[in-house]
Design brief:
Elements: E1 2-6, E2 12-17, H1 24-28, E3 36-42, H2 46-59, E4 63-69, H3 78-90, E5 98-103, H4 105-117, E6 123-128, H5 131-137, E7 142-147, E8 150-157, E9 162-166, H6 175-192, H7 194-201, H8 209-226, H9 241-250, H10 257-274, H11 280-292, H12 303-310, E10 320-328, E11 331-338, H13 341-348
Parallel strand pairs: 2-9, 3-4, 3-5, 5-6, 6-9
Antiparallel strand pairs: 1-2, 7-8, 10-11
Length: 353
């Protein structure tokens, strides 16, 4: 088992290994004073792992209740959040008790935000069961829900008390869900690790998944330590996200988040090559890896559609936006520019040109 310690407004550990679900109770117990937990999960994940986690919590002396919601990004809304908060109130949760978020990124967001809001804040343990949640969304304290106007527009920066990444849960992921996690891993490689890109390009990548998860979490740990509130350096993690979120919104969240990120990275990298901001090798490696892991690198949506959707991006500051641009393989930089410049990026980044 690997342990990565995140130092932020709350210091906590991210554990990466196998067989961690059965240890959830004993690992949680020393971190909270209360002995009542609510397990929040969706109707896909809970039938697979809910009983194991529930038993572990009860064996450690916890009384457990379960809040389930329909799987999918469409559930990450104000209605689900209010229902979750009401559920905790009805079950008399106190400030000494704990939320257990068991599932992928949507569950992590819902559980983390609900815990942050209820009674002005109770403990939350993140147990990510998707690859994307393990390497990205469960770490760093971002919690949010979507509004009709855009993705992740209501949320907080609230760090969890513990993150348990049980690699065994990845074996039940559908291929498309596993692939979207690979999009975020490719992102980390493009941001700061050519060595990680080399592993992904090899035939042994799946055999090294525990090492890959640990490397990604370690990279995010270092960035969060510098900029917890996402005001500067942490924005580098948004490579592919500005365009990707616009694509997600235009699709009414009918695609996976990782697919949107993959398309966003592809469009941005092609544009940067055409603008002579990065060598063609960046595009070649990125495209090869996206195709290897069955991820898209472009969209059929028009520039006009994407520009309209991107105006709702929470990273926009007035008429300026910070874009993440590759400059070499394994290195990206932040580039603050006028929002209107995004239109040229979208046009140049189209694979049809």
């Amino acid at each position: 088992m690997d342990t990565i310690t995140v130092t932020a407004s709350r210091t906590y550990d991210v554990l990466v290994g196998r067989g961690l679900l059965v240890k959830a109770g004993e690992l949680t117990a020393p971190l909270v004073k209360g002995r009542h937990c609510v397990i929040i999960s969706d109707d896909n994940v809970f039938p697979l792992y809910g009983e194991t986690v529930q038993k572990s919590m009860e064996d450690a002396g916890f009384i457990s209740d379960t809040f389930l919601f329909q799987a999918g990004e469409a559930s990450k809304n104000t209605n689900t959040l209010l229902n979750f908060l009401s559920f905790m109130a009805e079950h008399e949760m106190t400030r000494q008790d704990v939320v257990i978020a068991l599932g992928g990124g949507v569950t992590g967001d819902m559980g983390g935000l609900g815990a942050a809001l209820f009674l002005r804040g109770i403990a939350c343990i993140q147990i990510p069961t998707s690859l994307l949640a393990m390497v990205d969304s469960s770490v760093g304290g971002k919690t949010a829900i979507d509004l009709p106007a855009g993705k992740n527009m209501v949320g907080t920066f609230t760090q969890p008390h513990l993150v348990l990444c049980d690699i065994d849960t990845l074996k039940t992921l559908p291929d498309a869900v596993y692939a979207e996690g690979m999009a975020e891993i490719i992102k980390y490689g493009m941001l700061g690790s050519r060595a990680l890109l080399d592993i992904l390009d090899s035939e042994a990548a799946d055999e090294q998944i525990k090492h890959i998860v640990t490397e990604c979490v370690s990279m995010k740990r270092d960035i969060v330590a510098q900029d917890e509130q996402d005001l500067g350096e942490r924005q580098i993690l948004n490579f592919g996200h500005t365009i990707g979120h616009a694509i997600e919104r235009c699709s009414n969240y009918g695609i996976f988040h990782g697919e949107g990120v993959a398309m966003g990275m592809g469009i941005m990298t092609r544009a940067c090559v055409k603008l002579n901001l990065c060598p063609p090798e960046c595009e070649e490696i990125l495209t090869r890896l996206l195709r290897k892991y069955h991820l898209p690198d472009d969209t059929e949506l028009s520039t006009e559609q994407l520009m309209q959707a991107a105006r709702a991006d929470k990273k926009r500051r007035g008429e300026a936006i910070t874009l993440v641009m590759p400059v070499e393989v394994g290195k990206c930089v932040l580039h603050r520019t006028e929002f209107s410049a995004l239109e040229e990026i979208l046009q140049l980044g189209s694979a049809a040109l």
